[in-house]
Amino acid sequence: MNRVPLWTGAALLAFGLSVFAWKILILGLPVLPSDAEGLWRVDLEITVRGTNRRGSVRTTLPSSGPGQTVFDEHSTSDRLNFTIREENGERSGVWSGRLTGVHTIGYGFRVQLEPFTVPIPPATDGAPLKAPEEVRERYARPVTNLGPDAPEVEGLLAALRVPPSDDRAAQLRLLYRFVADEIATAETGSSDPVLTLATREGNPEGKVDLLCALLRAVGIPARPVLGLRLESAQPVEPVVWAEAWIGGEWIPMSPTEGFFAQRPSSLLRLRTDADTLLETSGVSAETHRYTALRERLSSAEITAMMLPANPILERLSLYRLPVATQSVLRLILLLPLGALAVSLLRNVIGVPTFGTFMPVLIAYTLRATALGLGLALVGAVIALGIVGRLLLERLRLLLVPRLSILLCMVVLAATGLALAGAEFENRGLTGGVLFPMVILTMLIERFSVTLAEEGLREALTRAAWSTVVAVVVYPVFRSPLAEHLMFGFPELVVVVMGLLVWIGGYTGYRVSDLLRFRSLARGVEDLT
Amino acid sequence: MRWLRDLERMGILGINRRNADFTLRWNKRSLYPRVDDKLLSKRLCVEADIPVPRLLAVARRHFEIKQLPSQLANAADFVLKPARGAMGNGILVILGREGDRLLRPGGRTIEMGDVLYHAASIISGLYALGGHDDVAMVEERLKVHPVLREVATEGVPDIRVIVFRGIPVMAMTRLPTRRSDGRANLHQGAVGVGINIATGLTTHAILKNTPVRRHPDTKRPLLDLELPDFATTLEIAVRATDVTGLGYVGADVVVDATRGPVVLELNARPGLAVQLANRAGLEPRLLAVEQSWKPDMPVVERLALGRRLAVEHAPREDA
Q1: pLDDT in tens, A220-247
Q2: I need a surface site. Which of A84, A302, A417, B246 has the fewest CB within 10 A?
Q3: Taking 70 as the threshold, does the pLDDT of residue A63 lie above it?
Q4: Would the CB atoms of A453 and B6 count as touching at under 8 Å?
């Protein structure tokens, strides 16, 4: 290798690694994520357009309680006053003031979720467990049209042969099983408990309301609960479930999610008794969205990353950015690793691929879907490219419109996949739509141009190698360790640059050269 | 690792080394159009009195395509190709006419409409490097010299000469096969036959990286053939690379039955298979050129230097 690249690479490597070592050894930042289970950072971002009058935005804030510990809360108020109010043991945040133009306000927090189980007291010896007066007042009053005297309810309770009222636990189990097993769940079902009971089909809200109504009809206080589902690589969704009061405790259960007397660690509890998380007044338009990011570090480690013991680093810490920006940066910072892998495979091994970074982009898109499904999608796209070309060949169209028609076919195929995904309730297939369209079209274009220029064999060879490289790079994009290292220590990008300078300065044989010229080395006899 | 050491001892040039120390170093990016644009290379060669295939027609834009039939009315046979094509892609050869039908190699016939569609594809950039807009050009069809035609009955065999800083360092002739579909491209299955620059005799032959002795289609022997007019071939290859201003070039020369050697095209990134066809590494010769090179050497002296290097670094005979 030439001396200049050798030393340039070494200098970059030395710089990057010394910053890295300083942060780890002197500042004590965590090099390996301890991977705390169930630790999330959640942001709520609200945009409202005001009517030039006084108004307010009110949202429910999470509280610490069984199975969840909330900490590190912060808010942005954008010219409004922000206050936290407590009512009935629940907290809400209120932004108020004169609403003029567009206000972007937000609230963020970290939460440690843990699964928890509530033991149901055994059948009590004749003495019904009396709930306190205020609980009964609020949560035991019969629901309109579904009280104990309503004919449907009366008939149902008789048919179910609900045990006497001193065995609350048995009543609870029986009614829970009835709603969970006998009422179908359908997103298109009714949210009204009466209709849900009549048609034996309801959406999650309808089923939860029905369960609460039936429990109250036999005298058990019950209430619906609204929360969020936090899962890796899935959008945050509101979820409803129910809580019933027995033996001095609120017992969580869900007839749609299938948990009873326990709560899985993917659910964050927000509020009871209401089906909205946001109420506004004096507002002409409103949008809001929750984003969640699974933290791989323990809370102490996060503090160390957010507030390193150095004023410059403290300002540079990426952990202080908003969650949405962080998510994007976490991906972008992995790209250099992908590029490094491709450079190695191309310049040292000598693997033929489509373009330089097409494999990285394919790997990047595979992230969104499962690997097998993603590869099937890439295959489908390539097949589409071949078929499209064969069909379009006969029309004698010019290049750009022809490629544009291919793009239209990709769009139609993606639409078809999304429909099929919805039909079979397969989230992976629906993810095909997220499979970035531009990258697919570039792939088709590359493929069809290679097909035209160098024939099917060469095009398939390169497609196969591109896929192989993508599969090799793919685990990097899914690795929490790589994500933590690149995001927590962006100076490693400089290290990657140093390695790339070395690879770029490597003028030795590629593995492909060795294979190609092997007949010279072995002194193979000339053949006829 | 004996394998690796063998290659190093022979001075086999790898792709990384070729790119870093030869093409990147000696070929200025700004001069690439002189070789990538075949119309431009042709003009430069004509100005320098270097024989090239005659240009019959050019269509730069789609509306110019409809003039092609009248421009080609007197041409029985011709070759339609993209000015910026790579690796022999997008070349349409017409051997003759049968009434309204045009005869292609392999006995297929097409209509003038197909030719015009092909020209339109070329202009749209289907065959161009990077898919940019391109120019369709029509050239006379060369008649392959009988010595080479006897060996390879398909396509147009050519002679690839590697010229480094104006000195011919290695050469091979590329013979199309049925497998290569008439193209003189080694990775598409053409036969590569190494040439001793000093004598003009063929030395070794390869088909897809494997040594062979006979042409796969005609079964004619490939070794110890004397190439027709090889001295002129070398000379025009060297003079053609002079007009490009590039330092590391592959010049492709075709020996026409009547006109003798003509320069078909030039390549700023010539492949490395020439080393397999010659069973010799490029590196010792390239290094020797760097030592012996003097400014303003006349063509004759440079050809003599090339011949001397070929003798001094003759391929090993132990194979």
Answers
A1: 899 999 999 988 767 788 899 999 988 7
A2: A84
A3: yes
A4: no
Residue B168: phi and psi, rounded to 5, are -70, 125
Place of tokens 């009809």: A217
Q: Is the pLDDT of residue B261 over 70?
A: yes
DSSP 8-state class, residue A458: H
Q: How far is CA A91 from the centre of its chain?
A: 26
Contact call for A521 and B21, based on CB within 8 A: no
Domains (ranges, CATH) in chain A? 39-115+277-294 (2.60.40.2250), 117-264 (3.10.620.30), 296-320 (no CATH), 325-488 (no CATH)
In angstroms, rounded to a whole number, what is the distance separating the alpha carbons of residues A223 and A212?
A: 6
Q: ∠ at Cα B200 (B196, B203), nearest 5°?
A: 40
Find the mean pLDDT for residues A36-49: 86
Given a cut of 90, is residue A15 above it in pLDDT?
Answer: yes
User: B4, B15, B24, B187: which to substitute to probe chain A, counting the most A Cβ within 10 Å?
Assistant: B15
Per-residue pLDDT at A524 exceeds 60? no
Q: Which residues of A touch B17 (CB under 8 A)?
A: 507-509
**CA B215, chain centre distance (Å):** 19
The token duo for A328 is 């994007």
Element holding A377 (H helix, E strand): helix A371-395
pLDDT tens per residue, range A364-420: 777 766 677 778 877 877 787 777 767 776 776 666 777 778 778 777 877 777 677
Interface subset of B 180-199, CB within 8 angstroms of A: 188
* A199, burial (CB in 10 Å: exposed 0-12, middle 13-18, buried 19+): middle
Q: Which of B7, B125, B279 sits opposite A399 (nearest CB)?
A: B125
- What amino acid occupies position A45? E
Q: A438 in contact with B at a CB cutoff of 8 Å?
A: no
Helix/strand/coil for A33: coil
**Do B274 and B160 contact (CB within 8 A), yes or no?**
yes
Q: Cβ separation of A516 and B209 shorter than 8 Å?
A: yes
Burial A80-113 (b: 16+ CB within 10 A, else e): bebeeeeeeebbbbbbbbebeeebebbbbbbbbb
Q: Answer left, alpha or beta for residue A335, where phi above 0 means left and psi between -120 and 50 means alpha.
A: alpha
Q: What angle do CA B297, B42, B66 make, to 5 degrees?
A: 175
Amino acid present at A85: R
Task: State pLDDT tens for residues A415-437.
Answer: 777 677 666 555 554 444 455 66
State the alpha helices, DSSP H only, in A278-334. 299-306, 311-316, 323-332
The answer to whether residue B79 scores a pLDDT higher than 90 is yes
Determine the pLDDT at residue A126.
45
Q: Please state whether the predicted TM-score (pTM) of the whole model is above 0.80.
A: no
Q: What is the pLDDT of residues A316-352, one digit of tens each?
A: 888 878 777 887 888 889 989 988 988 999 899 988 8
For chain B, give the percent of residues with pLDDT over 70.
97
CB pairs under 8 A between A and B: 108
B:141-170 residues touching chain A, CB 8 A cutoff: none
Name the phi and psi angles at B102, rounded to 5.
-110, 135
- Mean pLDDT score of chain B, rounded to an integer? 90
**ipTM for the complex shown:** 0.81
Selected for mutation to probe chain B from A399, A444, A512 (highest B CB count within 10 Å) is A399
With beta carbons under 8 A apart, name residues in chain B contacting A510. Answer: 14-16
**Domains along chain B with CATH numbers:** 2-36+145-312 (3.30.470.20), 54-139 (3.30.1490)
Sheet holding A102-113, edge to edge: A68-76, A102-113, A39-50, A283-294
pLDDT digits (tens, 9 = 90+) for A119-138: 877 655 444 556 777 787 88
